[in-house]
Amino acid sequence: MKEIEHRINYSLKAFNTLRIESVADDIYLPKTMEEIELLLANLNNPIIVGSGSNILFSSSGVKQPVIVTKHLNKVIVNPPFIEAQAGVSTIKLSNMAFELKLTGFEFLIGLPATLGGAVAMNAGANAQAISDYFISAKIYDTKEDKILELSRDEMEFSYRSSLLKRNPGRYVLLSAKFELAQADSYIAIKQMMDEAVEKRKNTQPTLKEPNIGCAFKNPVKDGQTISAGKLIDETGLKGHLEGGAMVYFNHANFIINFNEATSMDYINLMREMQRLVFDKFDIMLEPEVIYIGSDKKELELWNTLIKG
Fold first, then answer.
1. Closest to 1 (Cα-Cα) out of 35, 51, 50
2. In tens digits, what is the pLDDT along the chain, a chain of 308 residues?
3. What's the whole-model pTM score?
4. Which of 186, 217, 286, 296 has the least C-beta neighbours within 10 A?
């Protein structure tokens, strides 16, 4: 695999939107589908990273090989269908759909992610989700070492989850196909995109304030979805600091890297958020963030978050 771009003992700071400093023993940057398939067939339990917008890397470093998909960014368009590789930016997809006068992907303009992560976590906003427009995907099955083509039903989408997320390490998205709707004009599409950008600007941190998106999923109680941010807000935690990590002032379900935060700062702050919400509302928040690392103490604390 000498022809595939490979770096050792390499910083992951540029590959996670929280901008936490973490060093990977090995990092690979494939440029073609053939290269990533070769890596998946030969590497042991690799971590797949796009923009790193939903990932908390351990400050102690990452021992597993890391595959970064940023060069896998080809898009095939046959309106109203769009097929894109895993490393394509969701913002790029939203803008491309607009240029083609296709509606459905307006909400993606506010999500700083790549397609692989967006599909795996069934990313969404404004009562929409990427699964609403999903047709099929090419998936690499690392257990069977073969490529599968899965339908929407076979992907088992649910709120902020999918077959991929529930089987970490086994299924890796290579590309996905979507069907959008042809709009009558650009005006309505542009208006919805502008509204999505404005809403994010007014309530959520930009990437100038490093963060990895929502810390927790919105819980469901008695059949009703409740805002995790609102619950955390009512515990009085906005602006609360844990080391260099801080609960964001404008939206309490976001944690920003305020001052050289470590992964332990982030985990401890999440545990405090979860504890106070449970004490006040008897609701156990479930993390939306994915932790990657092998630090024993961090893993123990993270498992208490997962198990509640």
1. 35
2. 668 999 999 999 999 999 999 999 999 999 999 999 999 999 999 999 998 988 999 999 999 999 999 999 999 999 999 999 999 999 999 999 999 999 999 999 988 899 999 999 999 887 899 999 999 999 999 999 999 999 999 999 999 999 999 998 899 999 999 999 999 999 999 999 999 888 888 888 877 899 999 999 999 988 899 999 999 999 999 999 999 999 999 999 999 999 999 999 999 999 999 999 999 999 999 999 999 999 999 999 999 999 88
3. 0.91
4. 296
263-266 long-range contacts (CB < 8 A, ≥24 apart) are 263/20, 263/22, 263/56, 263/57, 263/58, 263/59, 263/60, 263/291, 263/293, 263/295, 263/298, 264/59, 264/297, 264/298, 264/301, 266/18, 266/20, 266/56, 266/242
Of the candidates 166, 172, 152, 10, the residue with the CA atom closest to the CA atom of residue 87: 172
